[in-house]
Amino acid sequence: MNLSDPIADFLTRIRNASQAQNRFCEIPWSKLKERLAEILKEEGLIVSYQVNLKETYGTIRVYLKYAGRRQVLNGLKRMSSPGSRRYITKDQIPNFFGGLGIPVLSTSKGVMAGAKAHKEQVGGELLFLAW
Questions:
Q1: Looking at residues 124-131, what average pLDDT do you find?
Q2: How far is CA 120 from CA 33, 41, 50, 117, 129, in A?
Q3: Which end of the chain has less neighbouring CB within 10 Å, N or C?
Q4: Going by C-beta distance under 8 Å and a sequence separation of 6 or more, which residues neighbour residue 70?
Q5: Smallest Cα–Cα separation from 105: which of 78, 76, 89, 128?
Q6: pLDDT mean over 105-129
Q7: Of 109, 108, 113, 111, which Cα lies nearest the Cα of 130?
Q8: Residue 1: pLDDT band by 50, 70, 90 thresholds?
Q9: Are 106 and 121 in contact (CB under 8 A)?
Q10: Whole domain around residue 39: which residue ranges?
Q11: pTM value?
Q12: E strands, the chain, in order
């Protein structure tokens, strides 16, 4: 499978599984996608994730989080795309939904949540927003 935007595919699979109220979703593995799942877990938007690596490919199983019948992860919005990159400085890191929204950035120090990027004093490519 050749995807031109693997991050958008990652977000779409999680969004669709969450809308369908599935317990988990399967996503093709990459180091970047594993790091994105790790950030979502650290921020409390998913329960956990599990990496299953085979010889030629791997998958990530992302376990979604619900509060009763409502999903905890209410929205995911892709901000930067391969055709239109969006770079921001540390002072431009968005703060939305009263700090409950999480911007995810790709920085020179790795992929991280907006609060950590602000603490580390780095900007970078704004990958997506999660709330």
A1: 97
A2: 22, 20, 28, 5, 19
A3: N
A4: none
A5: 128
A6: 97
A7: 113
A8: low
A9: no
A10: 6-71
A11: 0.93
A12: 24-28, 46-53, 58-64, 66-67, 70-71, 76-78, 87-88, 102-107, 110-113, 124-130
Q: Examine the fold and report which residue of 28, 51, 71 is the final residue of a domain before the chain moves on.
A: 71
Beta-carbon count within 10 A of 101 CB: 17
φ, ψ (nearest 5 deg) of residue 101: -80, 150
Give yes or no for a contact between 10 and 34, defined as CB atoms under 8 angstroms apart: no
Number of domains in the chain: 2
How does pLDDT run across 6-55, given as a tens digit for each residue? 999 999 999 999 999 999 999 999 999 999 999 999 999 999 999 999 98
Which domain CATH number covers 33? 3.30.1370.30
Listed residues 23, 48, 71: the one ending a domain? 71
CB neighbours of 80 closer than 8 A, spacing ≥ 6? 86, 87, 125, 126, 127, 128
Residue positions counted in the chain: 131
Which pair of tokens denotes residue 110?
């790795």
